Every structure is written in C-alpha cells, then in structure tokens.
Amino acid sequence: MAHQIHRLVVALGLALTLGLFAPQAMAQVNPTAESVTEEALFDALGSGGNVTGRISIPDAHAGQLIAPENRVWAAMQGDTLHTISIWAVIGMIALLTLFYLVRGKIRIDGGMSGRKILRFNAIERFAHWTLASTFIILALSGLNIIIGRTVLLPMIGEGAFGTLSAWGKIAHNFLAWPFMVALVMIVVLWVIHNIPNKVDLEWMKQGGGLLKKGVHPPAKKFNAGQKIIFWSVVLGGAALSFTGVMLLFPNEVATFADWQFYQTIHALTAAALSAIIIAHIYIGSVGMEGAFDAMGSGEVDENWAKEHHSLWVEEVKGETGSKARPHPAE
Amino acid sequence: MARLKFLCDADRCIECNACVTACKNEHEVPWGINRRRVVTINDGLPGERSVSMACMHCTDAPCASVCPVDCFYTTDDAVVLHNKDTCIGCGYCSYACPFGAPQYPQTANFGTRGKMDKCTYCSGGPEPDMSEVEYIKYGSNRLAEGKLPLCAEMCSTKSLLAGDGDIIAEIYRERVVTRGYGSGAWGWRTAYGETVTV
C-alpha cells in the first residue's frame, strides 16, 4: 500500500515536472528527451524524499534507490548520540562522587541493632539480580557500540576490539531475553508497592533525608526515590525491549526510517537509564550503610528499616504479631 | 591517484540485469545477497528509467562514520572497503547508507544479520591482493589485476561506467551533449556532493 502511494507520488511529481518542462523538451533534438531527471525528481519529491522504483529481486527493501536523508541520521548517530552517551555516564559518576565527598556514606543513626527483618524473599532477589546482571552486560555492550570506537579501540587495538565487540553483540542479543523475563517478574512482584501516594510527597519535600543527617521521612516498602527507580526501569526497560526486538528482527520493520527511529530511541533510553542505574548502584552499595543487605541476604537490620522504611516496619511487625512467622518463646 | 566512481547512464540502461548476474558470478556471492541491483523508476509510465545501483563509494562515507567498530577504510583510489574480521553485523551501515548497499547473510542468532557484505569495486579487502582468503571473504580483486569492475566492463549498452570520476563524467557529458538529453548521474549528488553538469 505504502509502496503504491509512493509510486503515485513519483508519478504525480513526474507529471508535474513534465508539465513544466514540456515546452523545453519539445524544442530539443530528440523526442525521447521527455525523460525524468534526477534533479527534477528530487525537486518533485521534496525534502526527505526517497527515489523508489520496481525491482525484480524478492527483497522489497532493495526497491529504494536513493535515500539522501540517511546521511542525516548518520551524522546524528556518529556525533550527537555519542556525546549524549558519554556525558550521561561521566556526568552521573561525577555527580555521585561530589555527593559522596559532601555527604559521605549515609550511616544508620541508631547503629546496628543486630535484629534482622526479611525485606526481600528469594524470588524477589532472583528477579532483581537477573535484571541487574543482564542490564549491566547489556549496558556495557551497548555503550561499547556507541563509544567503544573512540574510547576502547585506541587502547586495545583492532583485533581485540573486534573480537570483544563481536562477543558483546552476541551477549546483547541473547541476554535481552532473560532481561525481559526479569522485567516482567519485577512488575508482577512490586507494582503494588510502587503506586505513588501522599507519603511520597512528604518524602520528596524532605529530599528523602538524603541531604541532611538525622532526617528520616516515613516510607512504606518503597520510598519515593525507589518508586522513581522502579518506574524508570519498568518504562525505560519496556521501551528498550520493544525497540530492541524491532532491531533484532530487522525484517519485521519495513523501512530505513523505522530502523533509524528505533535505534535513536534505544540509544537515548539506554543512556538515561544507565545514568539512573549508576545512581541506584551507588546508594545500594557504598552510599548507604545497611542498604546492600536488602538485596544481599534479603534481611535488613531493624534500625536501618525503622529509619528508612518506618511505615513498612510497622506493617511487618503488625503482621508478624498476629500471624505467620513463628517466634521463639519469650 | 584516481578517484574511482560508478556512473549509470539511465538513458542507456535496458534493465537486462547482466551487471547483477556478472557480479554474483564473479565474486560467488551467496543466495540472498545482491551487491548490485537494477531499480526501475516509473515502471510502465512515460519517462521510465532503470538505474543500476551498488555501493557508490561515497566521499565522507556515512557507513564509515556510524560503524561502531570502525571496520571501514578508504583506499588511495577512494574505494570504500571494510574488514569482515572486525565487522559485527550490527546493521548500522545499512541504516546510514543512502543506496542500500550493505547486505547481510542471515547467520547470527535468531536468524539475524551476519557479517556485512557489499560491493568492493572489485578490489577485495584488507587481505593480501588476489590471495585465496581475500577471495573467500570479498570475492575477486580485479583492480589488482589492472581491470575495472566486471559489472561495468561487460555492460552491453555501456550504460554503467566505472573508472576515474573525471573521465567517466566527461564521457557522460559528451553523450548528453550529442544526444541532447540525459537524466543525470544518479546518486552522485548524494554520494559525492556534486553532480555532472552539462
């Protein structure tokens, strides 16, 4: 259908051109001078116009003869996306370093209590770490596609870089699938805890207590900051998954313009999500005392939980008081 | 040094596809891959023209600027070649190419792209000239034998011209002046930023 429309446009453009140039053509020596010229055809097609025709081989894509606009994407890819990706990563690392120097590691004000509360069960941790480990490899192999040529290639040489990138591509294509499965898992497991509510407003107003010592706004299982991470991962991950699948099966999308569009969205989303995840990794490891245990052993210290997720602790305690978890005799 | 180019005189092309066949045969190009193709514009309408198209070996080639692994290089004769050992088959060059030149055998996971293949201007790749390994990866190296690309050499109507840009432009210009019309050097504006003016 699109093909037919395109041909119609070409035909109309041609008719127009012939109409305009007919007197001149007639004046020339040879009557076959009524030919389409490349210049007139491009004028008729307007900006962004591609010259398309009929082709006798089965590959319909090959019917596109000249697409000058592809050069525009090429310039953007080689320049703009490259710069954005580098700054997204370096910018976030610089910002976190500055934060660490100013604020330092966020300690548990009350110290370790020694009592543990189960925060994430085995299924939740499995989903998280599948998502995390695949994301890291996907992000690194993806980043290599954008900036490896300027950063890594001069360092390790063409042979090693070629081999590494080839393995990176294979890893990227295969690990995309467990990433998508884990993404669905975390949505199913956590979406109920991540619906924004009034508590989040108060948490945001107090800056999550990140900036000042001793400030601990109340929060349920996930505070507003974690909800932002959650929705960034879910929406960003969905966008990456969709555009990625489209790029993985190039014959499913019809045109060069589609590929260029999906690639651009994929790269921009990846740059943004990588920056967000770097911040997430920081606060979950060196940035905050006791935070890693939540995803490490799954059990957090009670004092940490009271400071960062006070409402959740109350919920859990209430629950354990009435039913479920067996307690030793007191 | 010459600046090698292709020029298809569309007013002479009869869409016999012999250039396509010759290319496939010369380089033993596998099924599903066409380094050269013939596209017919305004098929069946007044002003129908056929254009034989392959890699145009662009000035400031967009494929080279987007390649994540920097596998493209330009020879002293301005032919754009690539290294299949470095290529990872990501497909970016095919998104960037205005002429649909890059081709991919479906050999990677999920039946997606393998290493890219395209017109080499019959001049092989980075391997030693006329070596067996070069032939297997890129096809024959006619340029090293002192010959021009086969597609142009055997074109029955001499529509497809290959050689130094200035020389083939002059041949085309003479033709246009003599016969009184010409549909233009297809793709030149896009590939080289300039066209043949008559």
Automatic annotation (TrEMBL), chain B:
Obligatory cofactor(s): [4Fe-4S] cluster
CDD domains for the chain: DMSOR_beta_like (cd16371)
Superkingdom of the source species: Bacteria
Name of this chain's protein: 4Fe-4S dicluster domain-containing protein
InterPro entries for this protein: 4Fe4S_Fe-S-bd (IPR017896), 4Fe4S_Fe_S_CS (IPR017900), 7Fe_ferredoxin (IPR000813), ET_IronSulfur_Cluster-Binding (IPR050954)
UniProt keyword Iron present: yes
Span of domain 4Fe-4S ferredoxin-type: 4-34, 47-77, 78-107
Gene3D superfamilies for the chain: 3.30.70.20
Pfam family, one: Fer4
Keyword entries, A-Z: 4Fe-4S, Electron transport, Iron, Iron-sulfur, Metal-binding, Transport
Keyword Transport in record: yes
